[in-house]
């Protein structure tokens, strides 16, 4: 089968969004189109307020677009309202959004509980995921006993609990210090390789976008459009040392040039 014959995992088609507000309409997104291949990692960058979170929310079924549609695995979310498409995706955010009164394994198992999975099955899956994200031994701990980086691991594990077709990440490591963030980027790369997940990552960090992405999509200021798309051809697995290479630095420079002049 040729590459072009592979059905995209995600299709964003002519999507646009205008919010109604007391001060009048606010056009956040003019028009955005792109496809994501199964297993691909896409990073999305753009100036503050250009509509990145709005885009993610429309892809995730949380915000109705004013125009256009989104399809996951060939199933439209907005035109035909496919519940199955929405059930096949998962989110993680900058704030880990854990329930403080639940243990780590109960937090991870929560999406399975909401789906009515039996307790034994969902806790077994939570323990597997604890190991996958490097939290073995912390299954019974409470969120307050963990560091910020560890809480983000829990948040990722919880997102992976349903085996999502598509993982939507909104600046998940934005609140972490630089060293923890590097570590989490390596972990995320390893987890993606293990699970084969298709990922859309919103970030404000150009180097994170290049380090993780197969492609980097740069959005224009509001009302946003796709400004440019950068293919990242660095081999995988990527290492922190690769950030010192000329190829990596050239890519970062090219992306930065595209968003130069915008507050990133
Ligand atoms: N519910 C809403 N009602 C009115 N305007 C909104 C609403 N939600 C978002 N906006 C506006 O839409 C634009 C895009 O917001 P959004 O949060 O998607 O941007 P962003 O690129 O994620 O921003 P940042 O990089 O700062 O996180 C902003 O101008 C915002 O004020």
Let me know the CATH homologous superfamily of the largest domain: P-loop containing nucleotide triphosphate hydrolases
Strand order of the largest sheet: 5-4-1-2-10-9-3-8-7-6
Low-confidence stretches are none
**What is the CATH T-level topology of the largest domain?**
Rossmann fold
Summing up helix and strand content along with how strands pair, one would put the structural category as alpha/beta
Ligands bound, unique: adenosine-5'-triphosphate
Q: Determine Rg (CA atoms, Å).
A: 19 Å
What's the structural domain tally?
Answer: 2
For the record, the CATH architecture of the largest domain stands as 3-Layer(aba) Sandwich
Number of strands: 10
Q: Supply the CATH class of the largest domain.
A: Alpha Beta
Instruction: Give the H and E element order.
Output: EEEHEEHEHHHEHEHEEH
What share of residues are in beta strands?
25-35%
Number of helices: 8
Q: What distance lies between the first and last C-alpha atoms, to the nearest angstrom?
A: 40 Å
Helicity, in percent? 25-40%
Largest sheet: 10 strands, mixed
Shape: globular
The average pLDDT score comes to: 92
């Amino acid at each position: 089968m040729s590459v072009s014959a592979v059905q995209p995992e995600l299709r964003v088609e002519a999507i646009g969004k205008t919010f109604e507000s007391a001060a009048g309409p606010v056009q956040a997104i003019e028009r955005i189109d792109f496809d994501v291949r199964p297993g691909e990692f896409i990073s999305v960058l753009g100036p503050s307020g250009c509509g990145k979170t709005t885009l993610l929310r429309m892809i995730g079924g949380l915000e109705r677009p004013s125009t256009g549609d989104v399809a996951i695995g060939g199933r439209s979310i907005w035109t035909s309202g496919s519940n199955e498409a929405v059930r096949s995706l998962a989110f993680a955010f900058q704030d880990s959004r854990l329930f403080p009164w639940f243990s780590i394994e109960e937090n991870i198992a929560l999406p399975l509980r909401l789906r009515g999975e039996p307790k034994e099955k969902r806790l077994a899956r939570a323990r597997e995921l604890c190991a996958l994200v490097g939290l073995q031994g912390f299954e019974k701990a409470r969120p307050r006993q963990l560091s910020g980086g560890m809480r983000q691991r829990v948040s990722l594990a919880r997102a992976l609990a349903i085996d999502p077709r598509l993982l939507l990440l909104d600046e998940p490591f934005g609140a972490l210090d630089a060293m923890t963030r590097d570590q989490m980027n390596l972990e995320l790369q390893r987890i993606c390789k293990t699970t084969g997940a298709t990922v859309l990552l919103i970030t404000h960090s150009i180097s994170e976008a290049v380090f993780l992405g197969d492609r980097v999509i740069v959005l224009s200021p509001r009302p946003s459009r796709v400004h440019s798309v950068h293919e990242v051809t660095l081999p995988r697995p990527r290492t922190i040392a690769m950030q010192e290479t000329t190829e990596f630095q050239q890519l970062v420079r090219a992306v930065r040039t595209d968003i130069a002049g915008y507050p990133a």
